[in-house]
């Protein structure tokens, strides 16, 4: 299967991949299989990942240069491990992947997969399971990585990982996540070098994280459908001298089109306090027990096996509701977040798209279908009966940073001297019911309409 397309004119950047078999993720089973809602996809600079059911597939891109043709690595297939269930082994397992996200740290990339039982699995690009942890016992709805511009690598780097559940939002700082994944990757590479191919990871390693119950702010039986942490926000009016950090989170629920929350940083879950409260007492007790054993024992008896204290579920941090937009029967469906988190595009059940400034928490643009514009740009377009009510239903939004100068080489990762000022934010909207793709610069009036 070749998704690279035909040869483009010289100077146009393109890439593709060739895979002989994608049947594990449903390829070829039905026409339009790639538009199946149960098929999860994530793309990085050089890798593409699919996930469906209990299977995932990592595919490498072929580079844009002619000499890169055929240079893509072979696909890597991942199966959900049988031991991923926290329930009794006598119960039937119906676990599947529900969320997917690439995490890029300078030279290394990792694949994060969420499951229907609330666990997050971290894999290397070779398909080795590096770490697994359960943050909530409900299905993972979404995984989102938010980043900042890194001047040293001249690209956006991941700053945090956001895990969205129906009742809660979890934030994982890369300061806590990156060292653990690198250490697990080195261990996996060492085992592979020695010919040990089995995935062996230590469940005792726990990722420090923060969790907030955002559904409590909405009241009633409302649950979160999608959400995202957009970044740091100012403290409340009466807490300007507070040393705590506050994060802004936006959610869409079953009875609201948009809700904004202020999340208070839970310092008890920071790495330093985690070490002080969890590791230090265990270390002190172990050292004291060994000292007493050496002092009192005169023979070579084995020391009793040490068992670390059981990790208890983390308490919810303080989350307060800032504002909400309720317009029944309309409700939000999906959130698309810009790379830095400053903008968000929200699709709703009435076929509209809201562009939200997440710092000012205001809606700055609203997309509806405009058939006069469509007919003026495409006079031969035929409108189906009843299509006037379609709007942007089932639309998919994606933010792209494109070069200002129009030079395609500026957007390549290998280009030297690129700065954040060389890129402009663009929003791409795919409206499948109208069979169009719209790409608009958010701070300009230009609009491109493509098939």
UniProtKB/TrEMBL annotation:
Signal peptide: none annotated. This is Rab3-GAP regulatory subunit N-terminal domain-containing protein. InterPro entries: Rab3GAP2, RAB3GAP_N. It comes from Ceratopteris richardii. Residues 33-368, 391-438 form the Rab3-GAP regulatory subunit N-terminal domain.
């Amino acid at each position: 299967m070749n998704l690279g397309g035909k040869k483009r004119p010289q100077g146009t950047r393109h890439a593709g991949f060739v895979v002989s078999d994608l049947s594990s993720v449903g390829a070829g089973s039905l026409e339009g299989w790639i538009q199946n809602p149960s098929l999860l996809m994530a793309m990085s600079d050089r890798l593409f990942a699919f996930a469906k059911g209990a299977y995932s597939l990592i595919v490498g891109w072929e580079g844009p240069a002619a000499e890169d043709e055929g240079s893509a690595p072979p696909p890597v297939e991942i199966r959900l491990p049988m031991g991923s269930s926290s329930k009794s082994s006598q119960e039937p397992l119906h676990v599947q992947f529900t969320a997917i996200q690439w995490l890029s740290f300078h030279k290394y990339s990792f694949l994060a997969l969420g499951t229907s039982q609330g666990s997050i699995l971290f894999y290397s690009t070779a398909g080795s399971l590096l770490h697994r942890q359960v943050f909530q016992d409900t299905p993972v709805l979404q995984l989102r990585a938010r980043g900042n511009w890194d001047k040293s690598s001249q690209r956006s780097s991941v700053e945090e990982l956001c895990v969205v559940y129906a009742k809660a939002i979890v934030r994982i700082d890369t300061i806590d996540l990156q060292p653990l994944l690198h250490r697990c990757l080195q261990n996996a590479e060492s085992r592979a070098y020695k010919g040990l191919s089995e995935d062996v990871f230590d469940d005792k390693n726990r990722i420090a994280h923060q969790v907030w119950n955002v559904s409590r702010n909405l009241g009633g039986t409302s649950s979160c459908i999608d959400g995202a942490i957009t970044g740091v926000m100012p403290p409340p009016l009466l807490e300007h001298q507070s040393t705590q950090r506050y994060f802004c989170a936006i959610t869409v629920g079953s009875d609201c089109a948009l809700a904004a929350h202020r999340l208070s940083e839970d310092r008890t879950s920071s790495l330093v306090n985690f070490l002080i409260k969890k590791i230090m007492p265990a270390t002190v007790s172990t050292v004291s027990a060994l000292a007493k054993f050496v002092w009192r024992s005169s023979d070579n008896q084995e020391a009793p096996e040490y068992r670390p204290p059981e990790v208890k579920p983390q308490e919810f941090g303080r989350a307060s509701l800032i504002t909400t937009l309720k317009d029944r029967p309309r409700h939000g469906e999906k959130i698309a977040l810009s790379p830095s988190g400053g903008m968000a595009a929200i699709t709703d059940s009435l076929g509209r798209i809201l562009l939200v400034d997440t710092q000012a928490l205001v809606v700055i643009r609203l997309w509806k279908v405009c058939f006069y514009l469509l007919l003026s740009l495409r006079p031969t377009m035929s409108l189906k009966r009843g299509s006037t009510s379609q709007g942007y239903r089932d639309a998919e939004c994606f933010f792209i940073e494109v070069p200002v100068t129009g030079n395609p080489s500026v957007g390549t990762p290998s280009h030297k001297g690129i700065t954040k000022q060389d890129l402009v934010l663009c929003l791409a909207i795919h409206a499948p019911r109208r069979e169009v793709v719209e790409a608009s610069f958010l701070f300009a009036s230009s609009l491109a309409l493509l098939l």
